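Issue 218. Parser rejects a valid record. Input:
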Amino acid sequence: VAARLDCSGVLKRAAVMELKMFLLVLGLLVGTGSPDMGSSQGKCSESLVQGPQTQENRTHTTHSKKPFPVLSFGYDYVRLPFEISLWVLLASLMKLGFHLMPRLSSIVPESCLLIVVGLLVGGLIKLVGEAPPVLESNIFFLYLLPPIILDAGYFLPIRQFTENLGTILMFAVVGTLWNAFFVGGLLYGVCQLEGHRLVTVDLLSCLLFGSIISAVDPVAVLAVFEEIHINELLHILVFGESLLNDAVTVVLYHLFEEFSSVGTITVTDVLLGIVCFLVVSLGGIVVGAIYGILAAFTSRFTSHTRVIEPLFVFLYSYMAYLSAEVFHLSGIMALIACGAVMRPYVEANISHKSHTTIKYFLKMWSSVSDTLIFIFLGVSTVAGPHEWNWIFVVATLIFCLVARVLGVVGLTFVINKFRIVKLTSKDQFIIAYGGLRGAIAFSLVYLLNTDHFPKRNMFLTAIITVIFFTVFVQGMTIRPLVDLLAVKKKQETKRSINEEIHTQFLDHLLTGIEDICGHYGHHHWKDKLNRFNKKYVKKCLIAGERSKEPQLIAFYHKMEMKQAIELVESGGGSKLPSAMPSTVSMQNIQPKKPPQDRALPQLSKAREEEIRKILRTNLQRTRQRLRSYNRHTLIADPYEDGWNEILIKRKKMKELEKKMNNYLTVPAPPPDSPTIARARLASGEMAVYSAGSLIYELRIMLYD
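Output the parser choked on:
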């Protein structure tokens, strides 16, 4: 049609444009692509004139027979999964080779060697002429970081963590704020000096950089501290700080990023920042706890489908992390809360094979993610854009070290006033020296916008320098320093059942002492929480009779199964049935049958419940009946309280004795022969008299 038009040029161009639009729509509908919008009128007219012939040739070309159809090459189809698998395989081989060289692993930490491997790989890729891959922030935060945090949160030692929670919060919140403002403020002062080309760096940029570089990295801490086997107290303090300071880092990062785009800061903004910190930290904990309860409730109904039990644990945990990140809450806090909440209930519901699967799958993926992070860190160092400034980099490194030391010493001086077990100077040195930085700071800098932060590349170079210094210098020298200072190491042997039971006994004893003294300490609140958990939560989240099982019996079964599994895994399973007796089993101990004439009478359910009620009302209400006291407020006069309370107590004890004598009477033994009776009477008169007088004195003391 366009070729036949013999009108003006305007009509020709209009007709051609209409035909192009028609072919474009037709191509989108059919799926054969769109015509070239930039082609000339002659080409378009030629294609229209020779339309049928071109379609026939194209069809003939598409369906032409290949000489070897099987041997075709299509790398683009498998490029992404192939490269991911290749990286994982390379990381696993590096980890395997590292542990096959014990001399090297005893001197150099694993993280240092993996960074060196990443530097070599990035250098080779750059020599070939290709662009080395960069550790993208989305890949790090969405795929590599969650397995490491979930492994740490699921297997978190709850007892050590809760007992030192106050100290951990002081280091994580107050210490991180101190480091951020100290480093950021001093760097701003350095940038204001003339002659260093840093005058363009404003205060908000320095504070944002200080908030990123001040946070201790959990990945680096785990990689180093697990190799030196430091004692439980120092490990939980440094590792707990690295986990909980994520909320502070996230809040400061987003606040300073928003302030840099707005330009003005008011007092209201500062107050909103404090509220934002509470929302981010507590919101992440609430989101994780909700998903943990959902995972525990779902595990109630998996008794017939044991195969998918580990899948629920992984999916609920990952959904907790993603849900927290959607609202800019702390995803790390959500993962920790989810793992800590779900573990006791999930392990009571799932099978032992599922428990083993969860354990080794988490350990495997956290190890692979850890290895990939450090390799990518080395590769990204070679590939990333850098802007070197000696003054800024050296000042950042010095200020980070000084702020860490001053913060730990100052906070420990305050903390030791409230701790029973004081932190010594050696402990303070290890805590300050163990403040390692890692890939979280590296990834947060990559998220910065160059429009608002023109010195982003300089920040990136300074952070890489600090990471390399902390990982290489501090990570390599912390092991000989621990040996030189004779710091207590972690106990490799696990506690026995006897130790576990005595630990629980001491917890109950300390709770009772707090009740008598009227002191509401952490043992009191821990006991309240355990009672609420046993009375309400376990019945909803644990299936079957295990929720109603007595605590001591449930603990015995759990420890017996745990030691049996450890025995089988260590290679002693063949000796378990016959050759080697169980150290925890009590099934071989047969109780002796009492004589028939001495058997206790069988009590009915009603009487048994009445006895329990009497004991509960008289023995478990100590807080209501006794007043609190301490050694500073004891009254010197013992008769000051009066005799009314003593008479009431005597009356209650007499009523209790009458009821107990009615219910707990035992049939008398058969009469003895006259000879035995005379001998017993002659030999036991003094013993009976002394026993009676002793009982009378004990009663008088009890009543008083």
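Fixed in the parser; the record now loads. The CA atoms of residues 522 and 528 lie 10 Å apart.
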